[in-house]
Every structure is written in C-alpha cells, then in structure tokens.
TrEMBL record:
InterPro entries assigned: GH, GH13_cat_dom, Glyco_hydro_b, O16G_dom_2, SupH-like_C
BP-aspect Gene Ontology terms: carbohydrate metabolic process
Keyword tRNA-binding belongs to the record: no
Matches recorded under CDD domains: AmyAc_TreS
MF GO annotations: transferase activity
PANTHER family with a match to the protein in the record: ALPHA-AMYLASE FAMILY MEMBER, MALTOSE ALPHA-D-GLUCOSYLTRANSFERASE
Name assigned to this protein: Maltose alpha-D-glucosyltransferase/ alpha-amylase
Residue span, Glycosyl hydrolase family 13 catalytic domain: 18-414
Keyword Plastid assigned: no
Keywords, sorted A to Z: Transferase
Length: 553
C-alpha cells in the first residue's frame, strides 16, 4: 500500500512550527507567555495550516540558557503554567488536528538540577557517575567550544569534590553521562512520560554531543539512539525524533541509522540551509543546487527537515571563511549582528532588507525544497529581531499579534522591537485582513505544499535553468510531477527548462493564475519576475490539473 495520504508517516510532509511558550502569548497578564495563552492561539496556528508544533523547553529552569538548562524533566516551569494547563493545551491541539513535539534536552542538565547537586556532593555520591568527571582532562580543542564568547574550556573544576566535570555548552550545563545505563533508563522514562501525555515525539537537542562525550565511551554510541527510537515505536508507532545534527553529510547519514533508518527520524539540513544563504547572498543558485545534488537520500521513512532560520544564531559554520564573510557582508555587516564569529543573530526579513518580494521568494523556496519545512514563530508575518537583547536572545522576541503588540496586557518580560519591524508595522491581525500579506502567502504555500506530496516524497532533480540566478527543480512521485523555479535576483529572467517525459503536458501555476504547455520537443520557456517564483503542476493532456497529483492506493 502506498502511504502518501494515510499519514502513517505523517512527518514526511508535515509543516513544523517552532515556538517558545514564554514568548508566544500571555494568558494570565503577568508579562510571560504561558500554556493558557498558547491554547487561545491554537486556532490561529491551525488556520495557518501548520501540522506539528515544536515547543522549545518548557521545564523548570534557572533560565541561564533560555530553558535549555533544566532542573526537572517531569513538570512544567511554573511561570508557564501547570501540568493541568499543559494537558488542556494538548487536548485542544489534538482537537484541531495538530501534533506536538517538544525539545528533549538531555545532553546536560542545569547545575541546579538535584541530580547534579547530589553528584557533586562527593566522589562517593551514588549519582556521581551520572555526569562526566575527570582528574586530568585532555587539553581543550578550540573547535569543541560551542560558546567561545563565554567559555574557554569544556571542563570546569569543581572545588567541593576535587575533580573536573564536562560541559559541552555553558559551565552551568554539566553533561549527563549516557554511558551509564541508569542515565539511559532515566532518559527513556522522560520520553515515556511525555508521550503518555500526548507528545508525538521530540526535537533532540545537540545529538552528536549527547552520544559522543560520554564516560566511559559508549562502545556503540549509535545503539543508544536506536534503543530510544525502538522504545518510542513500541509505545507509539508514529512517534518521531527530529535531530539537531550539524555535521557533514557523510557523518550525518549515521544518525539516520546508516541505511536502516532506525535512529533519528528527521535530521535538520544544516548544510543546505547554509548554502541557501550563500546562494541568496550571491544571487546565484549554484551553491544550493550543489548541496541538493550532494545531499544523501534519507533512508525509507526518514526525512530531511528544511529550514532557513531557527531560535539560535544563523550558523554559517560549514562555509569557508570567505563564503561566511560574503553572507556577513550581505546580511549582517555590523558587528552587533554577528555572534561567535560564525553566525548572525538576525531574523530573515531584516536580513533581506524588508523586501517583501524577496522574502516571499525565500519562503517559497523553503517550502518547495525536498523535505519537511520547519519554521520559527513569527516568520509567517515577517518579524524582525531586537539587537538590544543579549546574544541569541535577539531573535526570541515576543510574538506580534496586533498593532500594539498583543502579546501581553502587562509589561512583557522581553522588549518588543521598535522601528520598521515594530508591531504597528508587522502584526498578525493586520496581515489576516490583507490578501497580499506575508501571512496569506504562508497560508497559500502551506496549502500547496500539503497538496503536493511530490515535493516532500518525490525524487528531486535539479534542472539546468541556463541562468545561475535561477534554481529550478522537479519532483516526481508515482507518475505525478511538480516543477518549481525560483529567481534569486531582482531582475526578470526567462528560463528554458527541458522536461523529459512531460512533452505535450500542461503546466498549471499553483501560486498564481496561469498555465503553459510543454512543447513536443520538451523544452519550455518560463518567464520569471524579479525574485519571481513558479510552482507548476504537470498534467497530461485531457486530465484536469487537480486530478494529476499523487493518488492514494
Ligand atoms: C542547542 C540549542 C541551543 C542551546 C544548546 C544547549 O544547540 O539549539 O539553543 O543553547 O543546545 O542546550
């Protein structure tokens, strides 16, 4: 049985929306977003068309890394609500057909977690081995330091117990020792707990760190990921792991489970994302086209998660120094926009200078790339960043619901951006009423993406567009085809595409009105506006375009 429409493998063409409960909507007027506020906005999310929410960490935390420093994995940060509020939220999300996944941050805990307090109480503590200790750590390799502005080592000396502990991230985030079977069991229990409360899976934070920096070294580090996935699948067939795995493609395939597909269900395509930015900086599609050609096909039932921005800096760590500089020059020239020497702490619309045509093109490109698109809250209305906030917090601004903000009736915990991206210029309420808005564009893209499973499932072929500024590709599945073209530059282009096997077919525009026939010799001429985009459904003569898409069986 072909599975396209059954949703058994729902993640293959999901639309994932990442949000932080804290900055989305305040439901109790204390200036902090919460589950009650989020629950009120579920209809907005369902109306947008997204199919899966990814919640950033919502657990108790001293908040020294915006919640990625957890002190209790089994409950809700009291500032965000109660477990009761969480369950009501889950019920409402499911009622509107939305799945929910959450960040699983188990590479480390907060140093305030009772486990760590116990572990550091002395070398004989029964929890000592839950973390990674050393008398004589290896000298640091600068490449291992994730936050070079704040840390110069991944080891911290613990005065009280006289040994060093490992922290891949900040020193207040000691790494858990997943080499210890008790820790692995506890992590599994955490997954089980939240799945029982309705989660459909997890976005796994910092996956390579999780399985690599362990003590003693895991004999088979990847076995742990396979064990976790097997556990989840036993409990809930459709549960997924969405992995933050920023490593080169050749290493990355191991995280899917080397052809078996039994580990991480979806991996973010960090390389494709960085090449997309390089392409936009150069107005030249070649780097992205090359990445698409080089990107390994995911194992059956696995998928690539595609994105342009997320809650962290726009990392450009996989580009060469010169390439990174090109992206900096184009999209983040001033020093306060840059971070860690490798990324930009900005949101997409500001980087593209607020140029709506270009912004629309960028998201059209995102939704047409083979994989499952993941968007960060506020992208759908074109929110900007607030550079006055510290570090990566710049992009984690309160959601802009109305012209006066609408996030909270109280003074919000985080400042609302001012200037041309302030709520009076950029907000959801106004854009709902405006048929030309970015929000409406997102709704259309999402609707079309869902109607064209070829894009997510199909075999993708990058076409020769004859012009470097244009990325053209086709996606074929089960005899159905979608052809897509994007013009990265701001002058109109006519491209000629050779569409083998589609001679005499009709190509119907899916985003605007229009159609063109592929001549018998198979080469079609497609005009593209400045930053223009075309999504075209191919239909054989005498078959209506809407009947020419992939069918369920
Ligand atoms: C991941 C998260 C980031 C966090 C870090 C430590 O990289 O995306 O936001 O700071 O892990 O948990």
């Amino acid at each position: 049985m072909r599975l396209t429409y059954t949703s058994d493998v729902w993640w293959k063409n999901a639309v994932v929306y990442c949000l932080d409960v804290e900055t989305f909507k305040d439901g109790n007027d204390d200036g902090v977003g919460d589950f009650r506020g989020l629950t009120q906005q579920i209809d907005y999310l369902a109306g947008l068309g997204v199919t899966c929410l990814w919640l950033m960490p919502f657990f108790p935390t001293p908040n020294r890394d915006d919640g990625y420093d957890i002190t209790d994995f089994y409950t809700i940060d009291p500032r965000l609500g109660t477990l009761g509020d969480f369950v009501e939220f889950m019920r409402t999300a499911h009622d509107r057909g939305l799945r929910v996944i959450a960040d699983l941050v188990v590479n480390h805990t907060s140093d305030q977690h009772p486990w760590f307090k116990e572990a550091r109480s002395g070398k004989d503590s029964p929890r000592r081995d839950w973390y990674v200790w050393s008398d004589t750590p290896e000298p640091d390799d600068p490449k291992q330091i994730v936050f070079p502005d704040k840390e110069d080592s991944i080891w911290e000396y613990d005065e009280g117990s006289g040994q060093y502990y490992l922290h891949s991230f900040y020193r207040h985030q000691p790494d858990l020792n997943v080499g210890n079977p008790e820790v692995r069991d506890e992590i599994t229990r955490i997954l089980g707990f939240w799945m029982e409360l309705g989660l459909s899976g997890f976005r796994v934070d910092a996956v390579p760190f999780l399985i690599e920096n362990v003590n003693p070294k895991l004999a088979e580090p990847h076995e742990f990921l396979a064990d976790l996935r097997a556990f989840m699948t036993r409990r809930m067939g459709g549960a997924i792991l969405l992995g933050e795995v920023n490593v080169p493609y050749e290493e990355l395939v191991k995280f899917f489970g080397d052809g078996l597909g039994d580990q991480i269900t979806m991996c973010f395509d960090f390389i494709g994302m960085q090449k997309a930015w390089l392409s936009m900086a150069r107005n030249d599609a070649t780097p992205l086209a090359d990445a698409l050609r080089e990107r390994p096909a995911p194992p059956k039932d696995c998928q690539w998660a595609v994105f342009l921005r997320n809650h962290d800096e726009l990392t450009l760590d996989k580009l060469t120094d010169e390439e990174r500089q090109e992206v900096f020059d184009a999209f983040g020239p001033s020093e306060d926009m840059q971070i860690f020497g490798r990324g930009l702490r900005r949101r997409l619309p500001t980087m593209l200078g607020g140029d709506l045509r270009r912004i629309k093109m960028a998201y059209s490109l995102l939704f047409s790339l083979p994989g499952t698109p993941v968007i960060f809250y506020g992208e759908e209305i074109g929110m900007g960043e607030n550079l006055d906030e510290e570090g990566r917090m710049a992009v984690r601004v309160p959601m802009q619901w109305t012209s006066d903000g609408g996030f909270s009736r109280a003074e919000p915990v985080r400042e609302i951006p001012e200037g041309s991206f302030a709520p009076d210029r950029v907000n959801a309420a106004d854009q709902k009423r405006d048929t030309h808005s970015l929000l409406r564009w997102f709704q259309l893209l999402i609707e079309r993406y869902r109607e064209c499973p070829e894009l997510a499932w199909g075999e993708c072929t990058v076409l020769d567009a004859g012009h470097p500024a244009v990325l053209a590709h086709r996606c074929d599945a089960d005899g159905a085809t979608v052809v897509v073209a994007h013009n990265l530059c701001d002058t109109a282009r006519d491209v000629e595409l050779t569409l083998t096997g589609l001679e005499g077919y009709q190509l119907t525009d899916l985003l605007v009105d229009g159609a063109v026939e592929v001549p018998e010799k198979g080469t079609v001429r497609l005009p593209l506006d400045p930053h223009g985009t075309r999504w075209l459904r191919a239909s054989p003569p005498k078959i209506a375009p809407e009947d020419a898409s992939v069918k369920s069986h």
